[in-house]
Amino acid sequence: MLIRLVLFALFVLLLAYGFSWFADRPGDLSLIWEGQIYQTKLIVAVSAIIALIAAVMIVWWFIRLVWTSPHSVTRYFRARKRDRGYQALSTGLIAAGAGNALLARKMAARSRGLIRADQEPLINLLEAQAALIEGRHDEARAKFEAMANDPETRELGLRGLYLEARRLGANEAARQYAEKAADNAPYLPWAAQATLEYRSQAGRWDDAIRLLEQQKAARVVEKGDANRLHAVLLTARAGEKLEGNPTGARDDAQQALKLAADFIPAALIAAKALFREGGVRRAASILEQAWKSTPHPEIGQAYVRARSGDSTLDRLKRAERLEALRPNNVESLLVVAQAALDAREFAKARAKAEAAARMQPREAAFLLLADIEEAETGDQGRVRHWLAQALKAPRDPAWVADGFVSDKWLPVSPVTGRLDAFEWKAPFGQIEGPLEDGSTPASIETALKTLPPLRDVRPESPVNDHRIIELERAATIAEAARPTPAPAPAPAPAKPKPVEPASGKAPAPGEAKPFFGGLPDDPGVRDPRVDPEPKTRLRLF
Question: Is the full-model pTM beyond 0.85?
Answer without folding.
Answer: no
